[in-house]
């Protein structure tokens, strides 16, 4: 009965676009809605219930009666509502969307959802952090998961990716070890969702193959502004095969249309307290408002040579990237996220990804990390989802016809017919028959396999530093500063001096200047190292560049007060709203501001607003004489976090009250708001932050 109700937003929906326009493009769960029918409250087996608030008792003051079937059913079901959280990537959120192929991959794969031009495939995407528990904060420093289930008409294909292109370990047999080290300490279960502790740094300083991933984690990529502003990487090399059986080796990339942007470190920490659901809220608010996030899917294509290497890079080593300058990322389709889940448990918690969910034309390689993943994802669902029939859960169901000979088991919901669930048989009339390649059967490319049984890595896996050095050298100076601060902070939170020293030795083998500066921050001598020579940067890895990005989904806080110039706010909205920007008015008290026939709804007061909600803050004309400590903190934080600041008319006085230099970079002053002013603000937002301000802030701090 309630299934047709609109979801109730927990915060005011951004008013940028009419939510009614956000038409869902896909609906994979529609049939299941029918399971809740009828107008009356019932038990799970359909008995109508007159009362669910009073247990059956021996008199109003008497004990509950054993026979109260409704009490027992209700409490028993509640007692079992939770399922085990994921052993990693427990904290996350997911949304529906659609993938539209450009058809450009037709020359390298026969996977129909990639090869056919303009083909639309429904998807479900789950974003996550790796280390924290299910209720942990979104904005911690961590790798982010970016897992996509494509419901193709040849079966489900899962691209279980991260927002970093490399991994900590080269062989999946070490996965339990790296996770034991990175998660909380087992004696007290602290710290939650952090890498700034002894066991993490103990592990990575002893397993130097982790160095490249550690560098990504300590970079701004470890603290994204939004799920919408993250890249995604399939990490491993995959093999694509065309209709003739010709293969190439590829790496998958998701490129966000909104660009790659991050928070700054202090901001992440404040956000974790103020709004632990920050990324989840940002994503769902944007989708509710019709501001659909988009990514392009791209592939780097390398020849499938016998040594599975390209330009000296071993393609089976998941700690290595192929610089885009050597193999450009070729766009093959676009992902658009269009619909929030109706039910978090049924969809986000119960979705089960698996690296072995492949379709004809996409194959795995011998990357030893990938090989272990092929086992783990299937296996983990058995305890997490309680048995082998999790593929029957609505969110996991294939959109292609399913006709298997798998039978029975816990939570079986199919009433299979026939007496011969095996092949071949001579008894069934309508059972499945094997499918050859001519009807879409998955036939593995017949690659020769040989080798001695050994527990060993190829020699080429031994280089642990050159690509970390490449990554560091590719970053902009501001990103390098952030990384030095991150290393200094994280190692500064370790107790064991020997761990700090050992990690400094690792840094010395990557970059001397970086090592010396981190060592100085820790008050330790910088060890001698052998950093790689002649490092060739890959400029595309830097996220702070001259490029101006779309500003869809950005939020501008406007400080106002009774008597403020509401026409200026209206003008700002007139220019920014069509670009997908949301304005939120902040005023001393709630309600609304009115004047000259205009009305502005106050969405936040000085008590409820925090700077981290906004990508920029503008002080309206008429708000210049406000005196409020919380407001001063909001402005100071926005300034410290390099956000564009606007001061209109007397708004400049408020900047001075808050101790902010009105002449600092990225502070836009004007007598009134006009198109040009709003345009300048949009341009600053498009560059994400006013990084020119950061060196000045550092001088003040020292
Ligand atoms: Fe994993 C979950 C990504 C290595 C074992 N992994 C999981 C998720 C993502 C990744 C995004 C969350 C899926 C979801 O939203 O449900 N994992 C990666 C990437 C890796 C990687 C990009 C390296 C390139 N993982 C990895 C290894 C192993 C696992 C080497 C084990 C040998 N991963 C798991 C798991 C999880 C998982 C235990 C936990 C929940 C789940 O699978 O369904 O099987």
TrEMBL record:
EC supergroup of this enzyme: oxidoreductase
Record-level GO BP terms: hydrogen peroxide catabolic process; response to oxidative stress
InterPro entries reported for this sequence: Catalase (IPR018028), Catalase_AS (IPR024708), Catalase_clade2 (IPR024712), Catalase_clade2_helical (IPR043156), Catalase_core (IPR011614), Catalase_haem_BS (IPR002226), Catalase_immune_responsive (IPR010582), Catalase_large_C (IPR041399)
Chain residues that bind heme: 86, 126, 175, 373, 377, 384
SMART domains documented for this protein: Catalase
Coiled coil: none
Family designation: Belongs to the catalase family. HPII subfamily.
Any one GO cellular component localisation term in the record: cytosol
Catalytic activity from the UniProt record: 2 H2O2 = O2 + 2 H2O
GO molecular function, one term: heme binding
EC number: 1.11.1.6
Alphabetical keyword list: Heme, Hydrogen peroxide, Iron, Metal-binding, Oxidoreductase, Peroxidase
Alphabetical list of Pfam families matching this protein: Catalase (PF00199), Catalase-rel (PF06628), Catalase_C (PF18011)
3'-histidyl-3-tyrosine (His-Tyr) cross-link site: 354-377
Catalytic center residues: 89, 162
Full protein name: Catalase
Biological function: Decomposes hydrogen peroxide into water and oxygen; serves to protect cells from the toxic effects of hydrogen peroxide.
Positions of the UniProt region annotated as Disordered: 1-34
Entry cofactors: heme
Domain Catalase core: 42-431
């Amino acid at each position: 009965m309630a299934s047709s109700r609109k979801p109730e937003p927990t915060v005011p929906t951004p008013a940028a676009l009419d939510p009614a326009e956000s038409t869902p493009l896909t609906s994979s769960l529609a049939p299941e809605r029918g399971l809740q029918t009828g107008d009356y409250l019932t038990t799970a087996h359909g008995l109508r219930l007159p009362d669910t608030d009073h247990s059956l008792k021996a008199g109003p003051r008497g004990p509950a009666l054993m026979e109260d079937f409704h009490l027992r059913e209700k409490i028993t079901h509640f007692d079992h509502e939770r399922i085990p959280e994921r052993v990693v990537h427990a904290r996350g959120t997911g949304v529906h969307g659609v993938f539209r192929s450009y058809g450009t991959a037709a020359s390298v794969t026969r996977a129909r959802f990639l090869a056919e031009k303009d083909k639309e495939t429904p998807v479900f995407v789950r974003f996550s952090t790796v280390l924290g528990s299910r209720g942990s904060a979104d904005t911690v420093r961590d790798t982010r998961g970016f897992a996509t289930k494509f419901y193709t008409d040849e079966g489900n294909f899962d691209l279980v990716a991260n927002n970093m292109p490399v991994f900590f370990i080269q062989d999946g047999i070490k996965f339990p070890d790296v996770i034991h080290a990175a998660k909380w300490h087992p004696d007290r279960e602290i710290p939650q969702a952090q890498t700034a502790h002894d066991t993490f740094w103990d592990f990575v300083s002893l397993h130097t193959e982790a160095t490249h991933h550690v560098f990504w984690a300590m970079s701004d990529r470890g603290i994204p502004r939004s799920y919408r502003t993250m890249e995604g990487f399939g990490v491993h090399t995959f093999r694509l095969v065309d209709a003739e059986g010709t293969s190439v080796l590829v790496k998958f990339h998701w490129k966000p249309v909104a660009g790659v942007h991050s928070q700054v470190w202090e901001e992440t920490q404040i956000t974790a307290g103020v709004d632990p659901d920050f990324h989840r809220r940002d994503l769902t608010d944007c989708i509710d408002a019709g501001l659909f996030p988009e990514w392009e899917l791209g592939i780097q294509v390398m020849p499938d040579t016998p040594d599975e290497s390209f330009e000296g890079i071993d393609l089976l080593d998941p700690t290595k990237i192929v610089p885009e300058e050597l193999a450009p990322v070729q766009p093959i389709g676009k992902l658009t996220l269009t619909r929030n889940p109706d039910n978090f448990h049924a969809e986000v918690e119960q979705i089960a990804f698996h690296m072995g969910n492949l379709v004809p034309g996409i194959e795995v390689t011998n990357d030893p990390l990938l090989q272990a993943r092929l086992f783990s994802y299937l296996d983990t669902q058995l305890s997490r989802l309680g048995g082998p029939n999790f593929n029957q859960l609505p969110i996991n169901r294939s959109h292609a016809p399913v006709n298997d000979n798998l039978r029975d088991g816990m939570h079986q919901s199919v009433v299979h017919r026939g007496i011969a669930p095996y092949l071949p048989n001579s008894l069934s009339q309508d059972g499945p028959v094997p499918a050859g390649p001519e009807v879409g059967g998955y036939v593995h490319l017949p690659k020769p396999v040989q080798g001695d049984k050994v527990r060993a890595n190829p020699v080429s896996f031994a280089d642990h530093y050159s690509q970390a050095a490449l990554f560091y050298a590719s970053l902009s100076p501001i990103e390098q500063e952030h990384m030095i601060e991150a290393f200094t902070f994280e190692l500064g939170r370790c107790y064991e001096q020997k761990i700090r020293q050992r990690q400094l030795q690792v840094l010395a083998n990557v970059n001397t200047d970086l090592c010396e500066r981190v060592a100085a921050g820790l008050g330790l001598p910088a060890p001698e190292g052998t950093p790689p020579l002649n490092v060739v940067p890959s400029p595309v890895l830097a996220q702070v560049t001259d490029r101006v990005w779309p500003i869809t989904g950005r939020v501008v806080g406007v400080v106002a007060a009774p008597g403020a110039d509401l026409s200026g706010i209206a003008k700002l909205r007139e220019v920014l709203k069509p670009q997908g920007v949301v304005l939120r008015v902040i005023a001393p008290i709630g309600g609304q501001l009115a004047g000259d026939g205009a009305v502005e709804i106050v969405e936040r007061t000085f008590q409820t607003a925090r700077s981290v909600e906004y990508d920029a803050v503008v002080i309206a004309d008429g708000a210049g004489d406000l005196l409020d400590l919380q407001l001063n903190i909001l402005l100071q934080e926005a300034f410290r976090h390099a956000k564009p600041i606007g001061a209109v008319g007397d708004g400049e006085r408020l900047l001075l009250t808050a101790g902010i230099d009105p002449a600092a970079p990225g502070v836009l002053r004007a007598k009134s708001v006009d198109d040009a002013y709003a345009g300048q603000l949009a341009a600053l937002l498009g560059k994400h932050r006013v990084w020119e301000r950061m060196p000045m802030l550092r001088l003040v701090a020292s």
